[in-house]
Amino acid sequence: MTESLDGQPIERDFSARSMEEQEDFLSQTWCNHCLEMDLGMVNPKEYETKERIWIEGECVKCGKVTVTEIVEEEE
Ligand SMILES: [Zn+2]
User: Which among 40, 51, 54, 66 could bridge 60 via Cys, Cβ 3.0 to 4.6 Å?
Assistant: First the structure.
């Protein structure tokens, strides 16, 4: 894992998550184009910056980019 120097997102390995987590993240979505919840996404990619972690994928319904922000339980 390389450290980003300029705050650019780093790609993480989404497939390293457990199957349960992957299924949850892929089904619990919000699409800004369809304006509907839980349509699902395909082709997920996970990214992180210092401040946040999120998953980008394609909406199952419209095929546009949909983003799911991940809240990690860390102090
Ligand atoms: Zn959509």
Answer: 40
CA of 70 to the centre of ligand 1 (A): 19
Q: Which amino acid is at 47?
A: Y
Give the β-pairing of 36-37 and 41-48: unpaired
Alpha carbon of 2 to ligand 1 centroid (Å): 32
| CA separation for the pair 47, 34 (Å, rounded) | 23
Q: Where are the domains of the chain?
A: 10-70
Identify residue 65 by its one-letter amino acid code: V
Whole-number mean pLDDT of the chain? Answer: 91
Q: What is the pTM of this model?
A: 0.81
User: pLDDT tens digit string along 49-62?
Assistant: 988 999 999 999 99
